[in-house]
Amino acid sequence: MMAEIDVYGVGNALVDIQTQVADQVLAELNIEKGVMTLVDEEQQSGVLSKLAGSPLHRCAGGSAANTIVALADLGGSAAYAGKVGDDEIGSFFLSDMRELGIEIDVTPATGSTGTCVVLITDDAQRTMLTHLGASATLTEADVEQKLVESSKYVYVEGYLLTNDITKAAAYRAMDLAKQAGVKVALTASDPFLVNMIRDEIWDLVRGPVDLFFCNEEEAKSLTKETDPVQCAEKIHEHVENVALTLGNKGSIIMHAGEAYTIEGAEANAIDTTGAGDMYAGALLYGITNGMEWQQAGHLASHAAARIVSQMGARLESKFTAQEVAQFAKMS
Q1: What is the C-alpha to C-alpha distance for residues 36 and 128, in angstroms, rounded to an integer?
Q2: Is residue 258 helix, strand or coil?
Q3: pLDDT digits 0-9 by tens, 5-54
Q4: How many CA atoms lie within 13 A of 166 on its CB side?
Q5: What is the domain count for the chain?
Q6: Strands 5-10 and 78-81: what pairing?
Q7: Burial per residue of 31-43, b for 16 or more beta-carbon CB atoms within 10 angstroms, e otherwise
């Protein structure tokens, strides 16, 4: 079957609600700065009440969704599997994704759509409070076999592996991909997740995964190495491709036994939300649209720099076709 879709994403369907706050607000809410904390619906409602009157920005989000949006923004073709509730926020998520040309067709679940409140402080750190809501009910039945089979890559969010129901959906997507000869990309998602299910992630890296995304902290947790190059090399012994991000220091890409050191693009960071998701989306766009791995890495680095220079996980200043084409000419 000829691939019609660049990437089919599978992940949590959350509506991101972003706002800037003072450190004092975090103290008053008694939440740890700079990390993602899972909360229940009542806690999330309390946080939103605390923020009443503050300017809020919302968009369809979740880690894998952000990556798929990034790819679509660059001109790639995409589809997504994620579960929303039968409510206004769920309708917003679906329409927001579809307006970007992303194919998504899910039956809404009973209950509320998941949300992620992103509190951004003056030092550009983001503190996330996530209520998974209906996204935690994503099942194997929500993974569209025809969409998987017509894709070049299936991209799976590591967060799905923490819940038996969503884990089954993730494995279903990977199994279908392997049966159809479709490549599988997996993102580690979070150092805490790596620490919790390290053996399972290694099994996936050694098994169905063709491209593994991780940041420096996640790579060190997975490999027990301290040098990021050694981390990348150790992971690459078991998986064809590795993309290891190093924040403003750039990234390391391993492909076909070669290591590519990608420079960090200059940025005035004001919000690091979605930097890794943007990097993954841009890299996936590049490698599914004719770029060499090193060229795609340069595009991904600049895309990540652009996203941290603004508020939120959606590019305000999008790449033009001419800008993208310049990366395809790089050696």
Answers
A1: 4
A2: strand
A3: 999 999 999 998 989 999 999 999 888 898 888 899 999 999 999 998 88
A4: 22
A5: 1
A6: parallel
A7: beeeebeebeeeb
Six-digit token pair at 218?
Answer: 């996640």
Q: How far, in Å, CA of 242 to CA of 248, rounded?
A: 18
Q: How many CB atoms lie within 10 A of CB 21?
A: 18
Q: What is the pLDDT of residues 241-270, one digit of tens each?
A: 999 999 989 999 999 999 999 998 888 877
DSSP 122: T
What is the C-alpha to C-alpha distance for residues 262 and 284, in angstroms, rounded to an integer? 15
C-beta neighbour count of 47 within 10 angstroms: 18
At residue 30, what are phi and psi to the nearest 5 degrees? 60, 50
Give the model's confidence band at 331: pLDDT under 50 very low, under 70 low, under 90 confident, else very high: low
CATH code assigned at 31 = 3.40.1190.20
What length is written for the chain?
331
The H or E element that residue 14 is part of is: strand 14-20
> Residue 308 is part of which domain span?
5-328
How far apart CA 13 and CA 47 sit, in angstroms, is 20
Q: Are 62 and 157 in contact (CB under 8 A)?
A: yes
Measure the CA–CA gap between 194 and 214, rounded to whole angstroms. Answer: 10
Instruction: Name all contacts of 230-239 with Cβ < 8 Å and 24+ positions apart.
Output: 232/259, 233/259, 235/205, 238/202, 238/205, 238/206, 239/205, 239/206, 239/209, 239/210, 239/211, 239/212
Strand 251-255 versus strand 241-245 pairing type: antiparallel
